[in-house]
Design brief:
cNMP-bd_dom, about 150 residues, 4-stranded antiparallel β-sheet, 8 strands, Jelly Rolls, cNMP-bd_dom_sf, RmlC-like_jellyroll, Cyclic nucleotide-binding domain-containing protein
Amino acid sequence: MTKAIKLLTALPPPQRHRLMALAREVAFPEDTRIFEAGAVADRFWVVRSGAVSLDQRVNDLRRVTVATLGAGDLLGWSWLFPPHRWDFGAEAFSPVRAYEFDAAAVLRLCEEDPALGLTLVRCVAEVLAHRLEATRIRLMEPHTTRGHHAL
């Protein structure tokens, strides 16, 4: 499996500086719900410190953690794709500091600078591909037979 892509370090410095001009520093105390699945996705974050768990509601009483994010990780991609609703929920697993970006402002920047927009979309696509692969591996683990070789 490839190393997880870090959005801010994946952007070339001039594009990173333009994007960071839109950043706002935020903090979430431990156990804070950052967003809920189905709610409007109008922003995203890059985690600076701490841990965030992405979860899926199984029923009214139970959530399953599908990923844990840490420093440098992108939190939220649903802002980029219609219908702009969160696919998962997110909760601060520990105290979290992050850069927050307003999706509308970032999308305007992408329209003004198509090269930045293309690079950003490619970075988000790489993040999604990496997380999909990690999920696939996690789902397959219980079904693989260790110590036995196929004939």
